[in-house]
Amino acid sequence: MSNMTEALTQAAVLTFEELAFLLPDEELNDQQKAAGNEARVTVTFKGSFQGNLVVRLYGGILPSLAANMLGEMTPPDERTQQDALGELANIICGNALPSIAGSREVFHLGAPHVERYCGSPWLQDQGSASARVSLGLEEGRAEVDLFIH
Amino acid sequence: MLNILVVDDSAVMRSMVIRTLKMSGVPLGSIHQASNGREGLDVLEGNWIDLLLVDLNMPVMTGEEMIDHLRARQDTADLPILVISTEGSQTRIEAIRSKGASFIHKPFTPEDLGNTIRDLTGVSGHEQHDGGFDPSSGLDF
Amino acid sequence: MKQIVGIAEMLVSKQAGDEIITYALGSCLGITAYDPVARVGGLLHVMLPLSTIDPDKASQKPYMFVDTGLPRLFLESYKQGARKSRMIVKVAGGANLQNSANDHFQIGKRNLVILRKMLWKNGVLIKAQDVGGSCSRTMSLNIASGEVSVKTNGVLKAL
Asked: How high is the ipTM of this complex?
């Protein structure tokens, strides 16, 4: 595993565990692999290098993720779910960058942009990811991509 | 009783912080919320606040800019401030600390945040949710 | 009287003379809950985070899993006079005995995530903990005083 992928894995696992109380699986099972598109969030960053972090969720896991964060038994409304996903991506990004660039570097993060999957394919992200992490989460999965431009 | 202002552009994060406050045993007065530094300053104009919990990266006015405004004013120069942020740059964290603010990193465990708030406010008690916490929203034991 | 809690077992008591103890906590968690007013407390020794991996096992041995054991620790304490708002929860164990620092998917850590999730949803914070590392621990709860101690490598400390 490259240092960048290692840093991204560490940040993503920590955030899913501590913020959303979910248990990420390293190996995906068949159900997790087949899970359908759910939502995507993009966070842009600028600093000693610039780019964006994309988190894609599959398999209908956002409602329980948001409910976990809030400590509720039932999922919150759509807007709150999107807010939860945005905050999650922000925190993964904020934790991954210092591990990659060094702890003295300063980065500025943009506001997260959340998109719900509505049937039409997502636009492809430009270029190939510098690091990618796939994690099983309950019946679905998360893909975390780091793009450095 | 402490009046607390929570400033974060994520409503979910504000809810998480407020839930932790209620669980931590700190005696709570009014809890105010704002979604950026500018709104936070407006709340401070009309309300007495004992403790400010503030994020850094926010639209309109960042947490750091808000802290600069507060430190420049006589009545808020010594206001206890806890920054709750995903910021990982030591350069920026040191800049925040030099302004007399404490820092806790996101993601935090509820225990870490609860302990930090208790340390800041000097409250050591552990009567868990007798401070108005309503467990009915999530009661399964 | 010394009462021993085995792996995947639980004991709740209000007998002032009882000292509840559990041994060999590696990646397992020892969880104590104690009401200092009612002087009721219990100790639970769980092995794994979620019962969903083996529901049959969970129905036979609910104390094996965090998600089926923890509610029983609270509910049994209530039966003996404890109140939720007074419960003091402490935890020990959750070690990574494989000693591979880069393993992000350790069982001890996962046990703690599910414990925290259930407590968070129920409005309870952990009062004290001695978790992680790569050591084996012994945990005990004194029912008369509520004192919890943890012994690691022969060294005893209050939690």
From this structure: 0.92
